[in-house]
Target: Putative pterin-4-alpha-carbinolamine dehydratase
Amino acid sequence: MSVPELDAKETEKLMADHPEWELAREGKAITRTFQFKDFSEAWGFMSRVALLAETQDHHPEWFNVYARVEVTLTTHDAGESGGLSQRDVTLARAIDAIL
Ligand SMILES: C[C@H](O)[C@H](O)[C@H]1CNC2=NC(N)=NC(=O)C2=N1
Model:
């Protein structure tokens, strides 16, 4: 199911509202790195994000090593070959609200 991509104005608002995230993959994704006290904290964060992802049916691409979690959000179903959509905005906002 194709999902509308964010336009330039919506992307600009996303980045303004969430300055801790960075644009990636030529504007088709956003990414943020989280640094926690230890693995247990990182794992707790990942568990909460996993529940959000299931609730929103929108899943992160992520990498974890010990206390660091790198999260990348993009919508695989957007446009021709993926891109940013309102789903990424919603999930980024919910992830930021965890902290
Ligand atoms: C069928 C199911 O709704 C889709 O595969 C969902 C699942 N999670 C998803 N997560 C992400 N990041 N992009 C998607 O396009 C996507 N699609």
In short: The mean pLDDT is 97.
